């Protein structure tokens, strides 16, 4: 009986020694290759880049093909839940920092039933693009007409007059989240 216990203890000690790499110091985690930017430009909803700061405009061609395919195969031509009225940005979180309250007052996006959208600040239109909203999967694909801007893909959550946009990794905006509030018209935007 004693010899079995001795053999068992010896085997456990040998396994522990074999598993030890000889380094008793705790390993420090490596620094991230791409640090998240926290400048106001990255938090600006009109210029959101990928969360890693990478240029994803090379994916624009495939994103346009995907967009056109989804639009042509969609059985519904429009979705009132996203197209009714316009949406004012309330907050943007970039994975590290939440925007200050009021930082997006007057910033809006308006989705149209012809799969186009416009965005701007108060009564000024600052850009436009094409989009597709997948009602079954709650995914929004947006491609700005400005070819220097990355395509964007968002998982969408709705609650009465609130829309939450959660970035996906497809075009690198997965660290971003946005909260938008439904507004009936430009005159109703926060001032």
Helix-strand blueprint:
Layout: H1 2-19, H2 40-43, H3 60-73, H4 80-83, E1 86-93, E2 107-111, E3 116-121, E4 124-134, E5 139-144, E6 152-159, E7 162-167, E8 177-183
Characteristics:
single chain, alpha+beta, 191 residues, elongated, Lipocalin, 30% strand
Please tell me about this protein's structure.
The structure is a single chain. This protein is of the alpha+beta class and about 190 residues long. It has a single domain (about 40-190), classed as Lipocalin. Helices cover about 20% and strands about 30% of the residues. It is built from four helices and eight strands, in the order H-H-H-H-E-E-E-E-E-E-E-E. It has helices at about 1-20, 40-45, 60-75, 80-85, and strands at about 85-95, 105-110, 115-120, 125-135, 140-145, 150-160, 160-165, 175-185. It has an eight-stranded antiparallel β-barrel. Mean pLDDT is about 80; it is low at about 25-50.
């Amino acid at each position: 009986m004693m010899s079995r216990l001795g053999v068992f203890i010896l085997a456990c000690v040998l396994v522990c020694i074999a598993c030890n790499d000889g380094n008793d110091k705790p390993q420090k985690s490596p620094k991230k290759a791409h640090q998240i930017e926290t400048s106001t430009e990255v938090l600006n909803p009109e210029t959101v880049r990928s969360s890693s700061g990478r240029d994803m405009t090379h994916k624009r061609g495939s994103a346009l093909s995907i967009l056109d395919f989804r639009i042509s195969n969609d059985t519904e031509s429009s979705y009132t839940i996203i197209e009714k009225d316009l949406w004012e940005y309330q907050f943007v979180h970039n994975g590290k920092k939440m925007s200050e309250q009021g930082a997006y007052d007057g910033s809006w996006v308006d989705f149209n039933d012809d799969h186009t959208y416009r965005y701007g600040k108060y009564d000024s239109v600052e850009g436009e693009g094409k989009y597709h909203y997948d009602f079954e999967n709650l995914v929004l694909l947006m491609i700005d007409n400005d070819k220097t801007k990355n395509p964007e893909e968002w998982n969408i959550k709705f609650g009465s007059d609130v829309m939450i946009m959660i970035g996906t990794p497809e075009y690198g905006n997965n660290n971003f989240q946005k909260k938008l509030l439904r507004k009936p018209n430009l005159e109703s935007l926060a001032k």
